[in-house]
Specification:
Shape: globular
Number of strands: 5
Largest sheet: 5 strands, mixed
Structural class: alpha+beta
Oligomer: single chain
Strand order of the largest sheet: 1-5-4-3-2
CATH superfamily: RelE-like
CATH class: Alpha Beta
Distance between the termini: 28 Å
Length: 98
Amino acid sequence: MAEIRWTEESVRWLQDIYDYISEDNPVAAQNVVEGIYEKAQILKRFPKIGYKYRDEPDGEIRILLYGHYRIAYIIKYNVVEILGVFHGSLKIDKYIKQ
């Protein structure tokens, strides 16, 4: 089973998502953030379930979908590191450095 680690940046993205949605509906904001977190937990057992985005020297970056959001992560041996959570309308290339 893989270990999941959330980067500081990915935690900030989750907070930004919560803050934005909670302006109109705090309950919905909590549900979305919890849903994203729970979806990422599947990576413990199935780290390659997301589609392959690109290879890096440290590992492969993959994307897992949750509703309108993309959970970007890199697989490094037996560790899944969550890089960020992006709304589907964002150009992900601007946020995942090459």
